Prior knowledge:
Elements: E1 6-8, E2 11-18, E3 24-27, E4 46-50, E5 55-63, E6 67-79, E7 95-103, E8 106-115, H1 121-124, E9 128-137, E10 140-150, E11 160-166, E12 170-176, E13 181-187, E14 194-201, E15 205-218, H2 222-225, H3 230-238, E16 247-252, H4 262-273, E17 280-285, E18 290-295, H5 299-305, E19 310-311, E20 314-315, E21 318-320
Parallel strand pairs: 2-5
Antiparallel strand pairs: 1-10, 3-15, 4-15, 5-14, 6-11, 6-15, 7-8, 7-14, 8-9, 9-10, 11-12, 12-13, 16-18, 16-21, 17-18, 19-20
Amino acid sequence: MIRNTLLTVAAIIIACFTIAADNFYRDYLTGFEDISDYSNLESGCIEIANNKKERIIETYEFLTKDCQFTYKIRMKASHFRKRSRLLNTSPKHSAGVVWNYIDNNNYEGLAICTENSNHYDDITNRQSLRIDIFKVTNGKETALQSFRLNEEGVNDTGYHTVKISYDGDSLTISAGHRQLENAGKIGYRVHNDNMHIGYFAGRKSKLTVKRIEYATKPIKMRQYSTAYTKEKLESSSKRKKGASEGYTRLFLTVGSMDKVKKKDIIHFLVSKANIRESDIQGIDIKRKFTFVNINDKAVKKVMRHCQKEKLNGRKVEIEQANSR
């Protein structure tokens, strides 16, 4: 389900904490007092009572560069005002997860809520969990996708777990009350060394966080190497070295002295710029630099996403090589 709704949103950012670690785990037993302004020493949980009209957001800065990661949070949320059991009113988002947080007016996230499919579900206790993915840009919220998970025994007072998994090309969203169920998958690329990820308490709601986990593992080259056969590499290098029609010749400041091979160039361009291997022609590696022909339609992606990125430890600068 795709929406194009634009909403004006307001948020209060309470704190941004930096967690310089590849793996992180906290729960109500370890406590959150050193990383949250809302840690409850008695329960050990994070407890946010938001009686305002704006979201309260708390984020943590995690390492995300060149790695796969998983963020998992166990939380429960409820509204200050009870909804009628006899009226199937539209639920409001009482909690959610945010990522790529830049400031109050720019971030991405998902909101979770329970909803009924008919007027009698409250009585029969048959409800579903709905996940709405959104993006906030310059204070305007755009609803992107919605997923619905049917789950026995879902209710407003129980804990739910939300899991976000990044594999280098996409985000997979999973959620559930007792067991996690894949809600959906969205294309996504991380280009920053660090990212602020966290949670929010919705308007007029109470949020309790019981557990937060974060784990990473490197994006290994073997994930892409299966497509780079010897025949394909040789074919790529034997094509015309000058840019043919529809292709632009680029100059890269990395070469054989950096122990760069043709498969490294292909992997670098495909993984960073999200282009196809067929967009690459005529790789010509010299000692201190490399020439490569790129499909005209893919040049902007390469210049935007590969410029000054590292390849084999060297920061690569890229420019058009027409004059060379």
